[in-house]
Amino acid sequence: MPAYLAHFRLKPLNFAQCEGMPFQQHFEARVDRPLDDLDMKELFRDLQDNLRIGDQVTVCAYMRDDWDQLMEIGVCRIVHKDNKEIEAAWTQSFTEVPAPSGKKKEFGNKHQKLYRKKEFGGGFTVQDEQGNVIERFKTKAEADDYITRLNSPTPKPLNDIVE
Fold it and tell me: pTM of the full predicted structure?
């Protein structure tokens, strides 16, 4: 099974209608990633039946999916919709929420656990906690090396090159 890039889409449990209106309704959504990381052509694809052109969605970006630290707020409008696609556009710049005193404000404190798994047909895969295949390798050493490289900090460039 080949691995592929899956776009982030909002789940219905993280999406709510705020005002019942005949047109240009207001919705709220929450995500656990920076707003500039969202693909506006994919974000609302699973909610297509709930939205119409002109609807406004306020999106709150939290540090993690425990929803305890708000990082950014953005407002978008649905600008295109047909049978297969739905697209939104940001209507204003993002509002950054100041960090509470004593807390460091930064996205990406998630640590992903990766596992090496031997395949029956031969070779090894590197998988995440949900069993999603991240990468395939021919040998155990290659798979272990891949995980090690991901866990190590990026090497600093050398300024003094000796020829």
Answer: 0.59
